[in-house]
C-alpha cells in the first residue's frame, strides 16, 4: 500500500497550494478562494475540442501559434514553452556553454525560480537591488513580482548597453507586462544582441493551467532554444487556442480596463487593514507585523494568500472576483 500524500511532505510552492490548505484546515469554508498566485480571476473563455487531447501538435498549428505570439508580443520570432522554467534553464545552459560559469545578478526580491534554476545550472547567484547590477548577466522582472516595481525602457536600454561592453546579458521577465504594455522591451530584442524577454500567458489571460510561456531573444540564441525545447514545446490545445486568444483585441482591451478598475477598489479595501507597499493590477503587496497570524487566520476561513520566508512581514493578495468581495470583507473584519 502507498502512504497517503501529505502537503507538508512536498516542496514549498510559490502559490496555488490549495491541497495544503485543505489538509491543514479541513473545516475551512467552501469554495476555497486562492489569492496566492496573481492570476486573472476572469480567464479567457476557451472552446476546446475533444480530439485535441489525443493528437500531437500539427506542424501548421504550431507555426500559427508561434506567429500569433510573435505578432502579439511585437517581435520577429518567439520560442514557446510549457511554462517559464524550461526557458530559464535553456538560457542558463546557453550562457554556460558560450561563456562558462558566470556571475548572475538577480534584482531582488523577485520570482525565486530565476535564482534556483541558474544556480542549479552551475552559475554564481548575486542578489542585488536595481541600483547595483554589476555582473555578467542581469535578470529582473518588470513589473516586478512581488512588489510591482517598474523600470522604464530607457533605463533598461542603458543597462543593456553597459552589459554588452563585457559580453553581458540582460534578461527581463515580463510575466505581468500585458497590463502595462508600455514597459515591454520585446521590440528592442532584434536591435540589441544581448537582450532576452520572457513572457507568460498564464497571468493576464488566466490560463496558467495550460502552461504557456515564450521567449524572444537574439537570432543567434534561437536555434539553441528550439533544440532545448524540442519539436512539441507546447500542447495541441495550446496551439489551437493561442491564435484566437492573442488576436482577441476586444477581450484584451476590455479586460485591461476591468482589472485596472477592480484592482484599485481592492487596494482601497486592503489599505483599511494593512500598509500597501506595492502592486500591479493582478496583485497587491502589503506589510504587517502580524503577517503570519493573518495568513493562518485567512487560511482557516478558506482564503489562501502568499507569504514570504525572507520577508516575514509581507503578504501578497491576488485580485479576487467581484462575487467574492463581500466574503473577503467579512473575513478581514475578523
Overview of this protein structure:
With 334 residues, the chain is an alpha/beta fold. The chain folds into two domains: 120 residues, Aspartate Aminotransferase, domain 1 (Alpha-Beta Complex), CATH 3.90.1150; 197 residues, Aspartate Aminotransferase, domain 2 (3-Layer(aba) Sandwich). The chain contains ten helices and 13 strands. The strands form three sheets. Strands 2-8-7-6-5-3-4 form a seven-stranded mixed β-sheet, sandwiched between helices. Helix 2 runs parallel beside helix 7 and helix 3 packs across helix 4.
Question: How do the strands and helices of this protein lay out in sequence?
Answer:
Layout: H1 18-24, E1 33-34, H2 59-73, E2 79-81, H3 84-99, E3 103-107, H4 113-120, E4 124-128, E5 137-141, H5 153-164, E6 169-173, E7 195-200, E8 213-216, H6 222-229, H7 236-246, H8 249-270, E9 275-280, E10 283-287, H9 291-300, E11 303-304, E12 306-307, E13 314-318, H10 325-332
Parallel strand pairs: 1-11, 3-4, 3-5, 5-6, 6-7
Antiparallel strand pairs: 2-8, 7-8, 9-10, 10-13, 12-13
Helix pairs in contact: 2-7, 3-4, 3-6
Summary, kept brief:
The chain has 334 residues and is α/β, with parallel strands linked by helices. The protein has helices spanning 18-24, 59-73, 84-99, 113-120, 153-164, 222-229, 236-246, 249-270, 291-300, 325-332, and strands spanning 33-34, 79-81, 103-107, 124-128, 137-141, 169-173, 195-200, 213-216, 275-280, 283-287, 303-304, 306-307, 314-318. The strands form 3 sheets. The chain has a 7-stranded mixed sheet with strand order 2-8-7-6-5-3-4, sandwiched between helices.
Amino acid at each position: 500500500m502507498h502512504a497517503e500524500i501529505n502537503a507538508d511532505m512536498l516542496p514549498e510552492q510559490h502559490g496555488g497550494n490549495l491541497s495544503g490548505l485543505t489538509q491543514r484546515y479541513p473545516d475551512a469554508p467552501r469554495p476555497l478562494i486562492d489569492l496566492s498566485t496573481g492570476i486573472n480571476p476572469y480567464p479567457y473563455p476557451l472552446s476546446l475540442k475533444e480530439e485535441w487531447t489525443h493528437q500531437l501538435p500539427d506542424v501548421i498549428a504550431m507555426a500559427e501559434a508561434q506567429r500569433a505570439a510573435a505578432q502579439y508580443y511585437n517581435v520577429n520570432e518567439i520560442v514557446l514553452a510549457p511554462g517559464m522554467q524550461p526557458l530559464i534553464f535553456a538560457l542558463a545552459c546557453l550562457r554556460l556553454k558560450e561563456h562558462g560559469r558566470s556571475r548572475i545578478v538577480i534584482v531582488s526580491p523577485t520570482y525565486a525560480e530565476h535564482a534556483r534554476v541558474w544556480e542549479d545550472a552551475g552559475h554564481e547567484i548575486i542578489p542585488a537591488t536595481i541600483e547595483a547590477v554589476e555582473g555578467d548577466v542581469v535578470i529582473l522582472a518588470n513589473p516586478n513580482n512581488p512588489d510591482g516595481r517598474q523600470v522604464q525602457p530607457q533605463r533598461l536600454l542603458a543597462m543593456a548597453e553597459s552589459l554588452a561592453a563585457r559580453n553581458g546579458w540582460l534578461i527581463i521577465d515580463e510575466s505581468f507586462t500585458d497590463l502595462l504594455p508600455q514597459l515591454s522591451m520585446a521590440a528592442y530584442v532584434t536591435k540589441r544582441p544581448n537582450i532576452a524577454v520572457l513572457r507568460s500567458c498564464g497571468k493576464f489571460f488566466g490560463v496558467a493551467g495550460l502552461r504557456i510561456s515564450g521567449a524572444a531573444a537574439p537570432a543567434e540564441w534561437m536555434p539553441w532554444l528550439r533544440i532545448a525545447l524540442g519539436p512539441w514545446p507546447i500542447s495541441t490545445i495550446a496551439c489551437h487556442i493561442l491564435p484566437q486568444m492573442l488576436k482577441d483585441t476586444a477581450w484584451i482591451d476590455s479586460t485591461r480596463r476591468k482589472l485596472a478598475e477592480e484592482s484599485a477598489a481592492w487596494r482601497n479595501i486592503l489599505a483599511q487593514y494593512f500598509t500597501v507597499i506595492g502592486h500591479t493590477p493582478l496583485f497587491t503587496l502589503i506589510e504587517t507585523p502580524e503577517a503570519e497570524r493573518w495568513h493562518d487566520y485567512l487560511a482557516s476561513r478558506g482564503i489562501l494568500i502568499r507569504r514570504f520566508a525572507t520577508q516575514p512581514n509581507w503578504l501578497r493578495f491576488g485580485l479576487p472576483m467581484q462575487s467574492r468581495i463581500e466574503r473577503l470583507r467579512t473575513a478581514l473584519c475578523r
